[in-house]
Design a protein that fits this description.
three-stranded antiparallel β-sheet, mainly alpha, rod-shaped
Length: 182
């Protein structure tokens, strides 16, 4: 079966151009290389996205350590101040640093969990690309990236656009993968 070099749609054997988009049709072995190159692009985009999430996770972990140490420093100074002078001071700074430390800890946990999910999807690209395609089509993933990691949004959008453009080719690749796994 021939495949279109532009949209990945299958076409009849005797046609030279795709009836849907007008692209050149490739013969059977070329379609396999198109599938492999599509999987490589997905894998590379996921790798770049994972790097962005890891960088931001490291920043949030550093922030947690910083604010937790300030919290402990202010706590120890406050306890020392109360025991030495006997006058109680306000808890404002102590509370602010504690809340910031908890916020940074929560964000770093979310980022580390996202890195683990992306790693799982990267491992599945060549054996079961269906989950990766489903993940890449979610609008919620774009919103999550915008809210939590604007740098990763670039690669999330690249994967989203790539999956939309090559949806048929990726679905066909997924079907071939499921047939070979059975």
């Amino acid at each position: 079966m021939n495949m279109c070099s532009r949209c990945g749609n299958p076409a009849k054997e005797n046609l030279l151009y795709c009836p849907i988009c007008g692209g050149h049709l490739l013969e059977g072995p070329s379609s396999i290389s198109m599938q492999q190159s599509a999987l490589n692009v997905l894998h590379n985009n996921l790798r770049a996205e994972r790097i962005c999430w890891r960088i931001s996770a490291a920043v949030y972990i550093f922030g947690f350590i910083l604010f937790a140490s300030f919290f402990l420093l202010f706590l120890s100074l406050r306890l020392f101040y109360v025991s030495m002078v006997g006058i109680e001071n306000t808890y404002t700074s102590l509370l602010e640093f504690g809340i910031a430390a908890i916020l940074f800890l929560t964000l770093s946990c979310v980022h580390v969990a996202t890195c683990r999910i992306i790693t799982r999807r990267m491992e599945e690209v060549y054996t079961n690309c269906g989950k990766t395609v489903d993940r890449g089509e979610r609008i919620g993933l774009i919103v999550k990236g915008i809210l939590l990691n604007p740098l990763a949004v670039i690669f999330i959008l690249l994967n989203f656009a790539f999956i939309q453009n090559r949806k048929h080719l990726l679905k066909q690749t997924y079907l071939a993968q499921t047939r070979s796994n059975v």
